[in-house]
Amino acid sequence: LMYTRFNEVYGTVDVILVPGDSAAHKVAASKEGDDPTGSHYTAVKANLAATFAKFQEHFPNTVILPTFGNNDGRYHDEAIDEADKSDYYNFVYDLWFNQLTGNAGLDLASIKSTLLSGGYYRADITSTVTVLSLNSMYMDFEDNAVHNGEVNLISKWFEY
Q1: How far apart are CA 37 and CA 54, in angstroms?
Q2: What is the 3-state secondary structure (H, E, C) of 80-94?
Q3: DSSP readout, 97-153?
Q4: 32-46, 100-114, 117-131: which has the minimum mean pLDDT?
């Protein structure tokens, strides 16, 4: 209903920024070891898919630029574990950039390269407007360092 009403009031918009926490609270496992069957991870991905299916349904021609929130990974408040990174980031890339048809005009090769590497990307909206989507989960002081792989260096910068 909210999306329908938004379209009635504002019509088509150029860009929607989605600030993360697209999965519901308490869907992600609380901590490593709390998801031995993978059911939390499956539920997080299902929540993300349902959220972005609604965006696609109501905003098929709009550029939609999401970021990750602390509820959007396998473990709450944790960056994606290296063991899950390929599966998770490929899933999210497909969801955000293949299934959201309004994003078709973006530089998808560049976006895919960095999104699959560490969950961040640059989207050039016009020749003068660029959006940088950071994966701030890698910068969280409480994040488990084993989840960070090569990106763990970012958190080291903030220790000085």
Answers
A1: 28
A2: CCHHHHHHHHHHHHH
A3: IIS-GGGTTS-HHHHHHHHHHHS-EEEE-SSS-EEEE--GGGG-TTS-GGGTGGGGH
A4: 32-46
DSSP state of 24: P
Confidence of residue 156 (pLDDT cuts 50, 70, 90): very low
Quote the pTM value: 0.85
Rg of the chain (C-alpha set): 16
Helix 82-93 to helix 108-118 angle (10° resolution) is: 150
| Residue-level length of the chain | 160
Q: Are 149 and 82 in contact (CB under 8 A)?
A: yes
Q: How far apart are CA 134 and CA 146, in angstroms?
A: 19
Nearest Cα neighbor of 113 from 147, 89, 141 is 89
Q: What is residue 66's DSSP assignment?
A: E
Q: Is 31 left (phi over 0), alpha (psi -120 to 50) or beta?
A: beta
Q: At what angle do helices 39-58 and 82-93 cross, to 10 degrees?
A: 20
SS3 state of residue 17:
strand
